[in-house]
Fold:
Amino acid sequence: MDLTSRGAAVRTKVTGCVYTSNDSPPSQPIPFHHEGGRVPRYPNYLFFFCETPPAEGGETPLCYSPLIYEKMKEKYPQFVERLEQHGVRYSRVLPNGDDQTSAIGRGWQSTFHTLDRKEAEERCKEFETEFEWLDNGCLRTTTKILPAVKVDERTGKKIWWNTIIGAYYGSLDERNRERSKMVTYGDGKEIELEYLETCKRILEENKVTFKWEKGDVLLIDNKQVKNMGRNP
Structure:
């Protein structure tokens, strides 16, 4: 699976389907997410490898998604029910060319593997993604309605599949500043701040952090576990 067409991070291909995780500066936080969580096809498993451990910081926080679902369902059953019924939509402005200063700085050219606007538009249509070209050459995209909760067919457990916290709190740069438009319910209405703040707190309270040493390999079940990429 070609990860360069998924997600928002600027990545460098190492070999085959092996890529750097994110080429943005270490100071840029990477919010909790499931890899490929905003597209129809996604990897079942991820392998992370540490070649050079960071002098400080750089740990990878992890969160068990079924647990997050259970805690949110217990706290706000009406909110979770609405997410399950209506889904969510994500919006993002892709830069005209890669911006390595941003954790979401992958340009539309490297996202869609083309320099041709028409080809980029066709790729958007394949994913049923709405698009709008801006005057500065950037591309605004809005996903179709996507599931906020999924069921892992192996266990029957419900998974907190969405990235509403990452989209609202983490997916910000000079092109993407309007938090309320970065993620909405599937019907286009804003998600209430109370729910977002509580979910953010629950993720933080239930994370475990993996500290890297040289040569470490970490296998992640992408259906069950959210990763935060790295701490600043």
User: Anything to note?
Assistant: The CA atoms of residues 36 and 42 lie 5 Å apart. The chain has a mean pLDDT of 88. The helical segments are 65-75, 77-86, 108-112, 117-126, 164-170, 179-182, 193-205.
